[in-house]
Amino acid sequence: MLYCPPNITFKQIWVNHGTSRCFMETVETSIVTGFILIAGSIQLLIYRKYGTPLSVFQLPKSKLYHMQVVVTLIIPILELLRFILEGTVISDKRIDGYMILTLVLTIIAYPFSIIVLRVERKYLLPSIPTGRHGLVLLTFWSLVFISENLVFINIGQVRWWFNLKSLSDQVEMAFFILRYISCLVIFLLGLKAPGIMQNSDYFNLNDSTNTLNIPRPVQSEYDST
């Protein structure tokens, strides 16, 4: 098994008016996965040390949050289906090393981002909440969306699927559209942060807590008379 397709090496970055899929997919998935694993692990350690858990009743109930989780899981599922079809039906029915690496890293990165997402939802750090996701997840979603947009520099490349000359090109384009829409959705939902407690909810929680903790005034003997 070769890492890159025949007649193409990893060092060949620009080939026939575009980048090689071997180089682009290796670099993109490595950067995205490496970032979320390293930065996300550091964030999880911080939340584990300093985070305060919220009760179930304090968590915002949002269908968009569940949609955010589902769409995040759709991306590795699409990558797995694409991998299976590339080895059995579409293209030249061959599996290269970069395809395996891309699949493995994708399956690792997105579920791990959900772990970070759930921790941000269920825990509070000892600081005033912003009502938004942390820098780690926002950067991760930005990198994911940027990597999908970088594919457009290969519109004129023969080895990519933009020409739609065959059934394989059409299937690849369909997967790209689904993946692009999914990445756009999780990026926009990440900016909205539907599963994170908003500032108004936080201050209302503090007000109710303070109200419950206010001691009753002691009745003096003069008041009783």
From TrEMBL:
According to the entry, every stretch annotated as the ATP-binding cassette sub-family B member 6 N-terminal five TM domain falls at 3-211
Q: Where are the transmembrane segments?
A: 29-47, 67-85, 97-119, 131-153, 173-191
The keyword Transmembrane helix is annotated on this UniProt entry: yes
- Identify the InterPro entries for this entry: ABCB6_N
Q: How does it sit in the membrane?
A: Multi-pass membrane protein
Instruction: Please state where this protein is localized.
Output: Cell membrane
What are the UniProt keywords, alphabetically?
Cell membrane, Membrane, Translocase, Transmembrane, Transmembrane helix, Transport
Q: What is this protein called?
A: ATP-binding cassette sub-family B member 6 N-terminal five TM domain-containing protein
Q: Which organism is it from?
A: Aquatica leii
